[in-house]
Amino acid sequence: MRSSPPNIRPGFTLLELLVVIGIISMLAVVTVISIQRVTRDVKLSNGVNRVLGALATARTEAIRTNTPTLLTFRMVKDLEDPSQPAQVEMVVAGFTGEIVKGNNPGIGMNAGAATTDVCRFVPSPEVAPRYLPEGIMIAGPSQDIGIVDDPTGTWNFMSPGPWTPVDQDNDGRYDYYRSAEAGSTFGVLFGADGTVITRNPEAQTSSSNRLYNWVDYDNERDNGGNYVLNRSSTNSGSNTSFFQQRESDAESFINVCQFLAVYDEIKAKQDVDYTQFIAAQNSLGAGAFLELRDEQLGTWLDENADRIHFNRYTGLAKVGGS
After folding, report:
1. Which of 276, 292, 295, 320 would you call most buried, defined as having the most Cβ atoms within 10 angstroms of its Cβ?
2. pTM of the prediction?
3. Helix %, strand %, coil % of the chain (to 5)
């Protein structure tokens, strides 16, 4: 007597198919997240390397020209194509030897103008500007911002936007972009020997005078021959405008930093609610806005940013350390 063939079940049940699809979906999600994280890490590393390269170039330029030299950072955006993202531009600028008084009509400071000296820098004709990858930003410590209660605990952050194009003279062409969130203009100052300094030794001014640094991008002068600081037209009556970079390409005073923090703004916005900063700025003013941002975003930087420090004797930059 022959035995009956085994009962072979063809294919898979619906439940088994759903389980397999679920596992594949989970693996796909994990893979995408991993790829995004790796891509972010690579972009941040690329940004850090570009900053290190720009710092090395500025230091070399200071030694070559035997002149105090700034590496400064500002936000730029394509006026012809608003769809293009804003980027951080790194500019090497040399000291011209000229010191402009704060009460110069082209500078037009209100408070402390007579006891304020401004060192005029111009972009180096030998070094082209460099740019950071989209979304990579820089911050630095602020020792002299003048509009918050505790300047020793503040940060210089760049304007992250959102950016609104402005046609100031109504000629159908954009003149600049205005950022909804304020930022600061800052940089690193190298002495003629290549070391990092905080005060220009070639500025022969009274020790009681406040000393600022200014990068003159356009060499503009008024009818009286005075150098013109093309700052924000929206804040022309306040010293705050020197520190709040509200418009892409605006000129302002440079706050000198002793170290830098490079970070991924996209990651920062995922972890920190930026809208609260703008709300504080609109309702409580610049001081409250800056203090709130320093507290929240500054704390985030401590754990997520790559720090760049400088050897005190040589001025050489390195990641990490102190």
Report:
1. 292
2. 0.82
3. 30, 25, 40
